[in-house]
């Protein structure tokens, strides 16, 4: 098979061809590394390429040739968001304060991926310490959207989403604190999943906001995302927030959903607070069409009032900075990472101040200041404490909604990908990109973004988000795969298959 053929295959198809011996992991890995070499100078999805990728692929081929029973994703390439620590590649979290830092251990999801035989291609770009919605806050330069290189790929995990959309990898790992997997999926025409909080270990994920962070999969299909979540999910004693649950197969749920049988009688709630003013016409149009597709297959559409959702962004931007301020205190110039000594020397305090001034970017500094203020004496109850009370009210809104419906639906983000630089000087406009995704993080429930068309105004991809009760991740995979199949029927195939034509003259051919 040609390089183009191999890079366009889904992870599920690659898995079948690898198992049958039709292709080798060495061939597959080489094709994707060649693709990266061809296009990543324009996309800038990767911060580091794994020098041992060929070696790892060869070892998988040798084990398969020896008759060893391997997992379904053995030999399939994988990209890793740079928020996840790795022993054989630098882990920077998109920040100069960790430039070149090598971790002494692998994140649990990385270790599980290696054990399952996936081949790490490299580390992907991201907003510094996962603070952003456009991957423009990376200390190493922005990532570009493969559909239109003048536009953002979403954030903070724009590198992982762009790598998948640009056919540089079939699978990627991301993290989602307020939408950092789902919003990039929306603007790049990919699938992104935020699992239930605690379903996937956070051990080795450089912390932003510990009560909100969640690791999850990025892919070009719901089934591929399910295959990857099956690898990374499960209890981890290293993570005190890890759930002890035994999880059903998400891949099996996706395959069941693709038959369409799950839609008859399904109750789909539409939250009125997650649509309307501020939403691009084309995003709303595709969302309405998707609801009609579901209804035509027997689903019942129910309007849901979640009155406290309108306060979600405000509460989130108190809770997140407060937790970030605490988590980032470890970057103190003493233990690890960058150390800057002021001219003429100085005390530890002087070195710490100089290091954090040089090492952190402006968005990180902004959020540290906000968070430190919210936690300060005399303001804790007024700000952080009040935000946590709002969080409880949002969780109650979800509980009320799920007493009436099986899943909730909304657009995954209000607009298509905006132009690079367009919102950099307006933090509030940037923050509002996550208005539909933030509530799920505050409640700890799972969410999935599935491509559901191209906006007529600009021909760029949009996504629909489904949310389910905690621990009901499999329900999302069933519904997501069912909608995916309907959208593919409507558009004559998967949206990513249209990408080469759409990119002509403005994106990656």
Automatic annotation (TrEMBL):
SUPFAM superfamilies reported in the protein's UniProt record: Amidase signature (AS) enzymes
InterPro entries (alphabetical): Amidase, Amidase_CS, Amidase_dom, AS_sf, GatA
EC number: 6.3.5.7
GO MF annotation: an example: glutaminyl-tRNA synthase (glutamine-hydrolyzing) activity
Keyword Lipid biosynthesis among UniProt keywords: no
Domain Amidase: 27-476
GO biological process: translation
Gene Ontology cellular-component terms listed: glutamyl-tRNA(Gln) amidotransferase complex
Record's function text: Allows the formation of correctly charged Gln-tRNA(Gln) through the transamidation of misacylated Glu-tRNA(Gln) in organisms which lack glutaminyl-tRNA synthetase. The reaction takes place in the presence of glutamine and ATP through an activated gamma-phospho-Glu-tRNA(Gln).
The protein's assembly and partners: Heterotrimer of A, B and C subunits.
Family of this protein: Belongs to the amidase family. GatA subfamily.
PANTHER family to which the protein is assigned, alphabetical: GLUTAMYL-TRNA(GLN) AMIDOTRANSFERASE SUBUNIT A (PTHR11895:SF151), TRANSAMIDASE (PTHR11895)
Name of the protein in its database record: Glutamyl-tRNA(Gln) amidotransferase subunit A
């Amino acid at each position: 098979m040609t390089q183009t053929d191999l890079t366009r295959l889904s992870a599920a198809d690659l898995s079948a061809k690898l198992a049958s011996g039709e292709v080798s992991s060495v061939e597959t890995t080489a094709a994707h590394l060649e693709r990266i070499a061809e296009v990543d100078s324009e996309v800038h999805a990767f911060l580091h390429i794994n020098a041992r990728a060929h070696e790892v692929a060869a070892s998988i081929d040798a084990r398969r040739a020896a008759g060893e029973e391997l997992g379904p994703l053995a030999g399939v390439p994988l990209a890793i968001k740079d928020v996840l620590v790795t022993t054989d590649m630098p882990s920077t979290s998109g920040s100069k304060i960790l430039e070149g830092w090598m971790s002494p251990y692998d994140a649990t999801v990385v270790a599980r991926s290696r054990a399952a035989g996936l081949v790490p291609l490299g580390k992907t770009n991201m907003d510094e310490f996962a603070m952003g919605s456009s991957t423009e806050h990376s200390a190493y330069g922005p990532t570009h959207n493969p559909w239109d290189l003048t536009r953002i790929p979403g954030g903070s995990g724009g590198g992982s989403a762009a790598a998948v959309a640009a056919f540089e990898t079939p699978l990627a790992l991301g993290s989602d604190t307020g939408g950092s997997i789902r919003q990039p999926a929306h603007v790049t025409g990919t699938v992104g999943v935020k699992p239930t909080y605690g379903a996937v270990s956070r051990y080795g994920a450089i912390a932003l906001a510990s009560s909100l962070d969640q690791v999850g999969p990025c892919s070009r299909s719901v089934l591929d995302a399910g295959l990857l979540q099956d690898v990374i999910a499960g209890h981890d004693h290293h993570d005190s927030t890890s759930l002890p649950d035994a999880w059903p197969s998400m891949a099996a749920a996706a395959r069941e959903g693709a038959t369409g049988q799950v839609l008859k009688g399904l109750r789909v709630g539409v939250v009125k607070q997650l649509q309307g003013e501020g939403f691009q016409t084309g995003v709303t149009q595709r969302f309405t069409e998707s609801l009609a597709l579901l209804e035509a297959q027997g689903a019942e559409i129910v309007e849901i009032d979640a009155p406290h959702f309108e306060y979600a962004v405000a509460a989130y931007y108190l809770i997140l900075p407060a937790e970030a301020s605490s988590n980032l205190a470890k970057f103190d110039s003493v233990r690890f990472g960058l150390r800057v000594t002021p001219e003429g020397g100085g005390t530890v305090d002087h070195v710490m101040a100089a290091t954090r001034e040089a090492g952190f970017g402006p968005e990180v500094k902004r959020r540290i200041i906000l968070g430190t203020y919210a936690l300060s004496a005399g303001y804790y109850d007024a700000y952080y404490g009040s935000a946590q009370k709002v969080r409880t009210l949002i969780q109650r809104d979800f509980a009320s909604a799920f007493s009436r419906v099986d899943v909730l639906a909304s657009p995954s983000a209000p607009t298509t990908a905006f132009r690079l630089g367009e919102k950099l000087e307006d933090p509030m406009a940037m923050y509002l990109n996550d208005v539909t995704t933030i509530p799920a993080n505050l409640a700890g429930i799972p969410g999935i973004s599935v491509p559901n068309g191209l906006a007529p105004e600009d021909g760029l991809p949009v996504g629909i988000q489904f949310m389910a009760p905690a621990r009901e991740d499999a329900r999302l995979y069933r519904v997501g795969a069912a909608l995916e199949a309907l959208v593919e029927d409507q558009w004559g195939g998967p949206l990513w298959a249209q990408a080469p034509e759409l990119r002509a003259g403005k994106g990656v051919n």
